[in-house]
Amino acid sequence: MDAATPRSATVPAVPPVPGQTAGLRVHLALLLVQLSFGGFHVVAKAVLSQMEPLALAAIRVAIASPILALMAWRHDRVLPHARDMPRLAFLGSLGIFANQILFIVGLKYTTATNASILMTSLPVFAVATAAILGIERIGPRRLLGIVLSVAGALFLVNPFRFQGGQSATLGNTLVLLNALAYALFLVLQRPLLARIPWRTLIAWSFLWGGAGVVIVGAPALARLDFAAVPVSTWLGVAYIILFATVFAYAVNTWAVRRSSPALVATYGTLQPLVAVLLAASFLGERFGWVEGIGFALIVAGLFQVSRPKPSAAPASPAQPE
Q: In degrees, to the nearest 5, what angle opens at C-alpha 8 toward C-alphas 11 and 77?
């Protein structure tokens, strides 16, 4: 078959191995993803002072989707099978449409601190849905790791700073629903990654889900005075598109294929730590003992979630990890 001829996706060149131990590359990649997402909270809050949330969401996916599609086509030259299109559309509705809309609108009505606290629910949702759907088995060791990581993240964001009020309640609810949607997005990718290359999967998810975001955000986009938006704001938009969208989403999907949804979701607990480090680096805030405890708990939790089973365990293959 000619390299330029599209083919139906059946099995990727290197099929994923369910439950395989994550290598160093996976951990480094997920760390970079959290650095990108951690900066998003701060940058997006500044950008939203200059444009409506739905306008930002529409710009974000309208540019990111074709970039991801070109990357997928250049490398894979694969068209997904027709039977997988509804599944890809459903993934797009969760990880792109619901995730983008719910978070960006929720951030407008709540605080960055509230959003950081609520996003610690992501690994909890991912583990629960993976176990309920039978996609991933979570044993006591991984469960302990997730508890430690979430506890460490809560140490960093201090849940006692959580703010209420009518406006905050709306924003908090939207951010929480966003975490649930993204957790489902990570978990439901796993079965499809057995036959669809990861670049193609994330590209088509964006094409399906991004179309809905652009439609919903079109009125806000039409009201935006592009010339009045400062250059600094456009630089923030560029960061959001390139790092917190194209890079972060693509690498997360790559990591799900090579590790597990639980590990990818648990790495999300590093986002509050990233925010603390950014504040210490650029705002002169101090990294104290509380932050140190939070950091230690997160690292201990990630170690528990990612480390391989003991060598004695293979005798009972039915035993959960």
A: 90
Residues in the chain, total: 321
What is the C-alpha R_g of the chain? 20
How does pLDDT run along the chain (321 residues), one tens digit per residue? Answer: 444 445 554 444 444 444 445 688 999 999 999 889 878 877 887 898 899 989 999 999 999 999 999 999 999 999 999 999 999 999 999 999 999 899 888 877 887 767 777 777 888 888 888 888 888 877 787 788 888 878 877 766 666 666 666 667 888 889 889 989 999 999 999 999 999 999 999 999 999 999 999 999 999 999 999 999 999 999 999 999 999 999 999 999 999 999 889 889 888 888 777 766 765 665 455 556 666 777 677 777 777 776 665 543 444 443 333
| The model's pTM | 0.80
**Residue partners of 148: CB distance under 8 A and separation at least 6:** 297, 298, 300, 301, 304
How far from chain centre, in Å, is Cα 276? 19
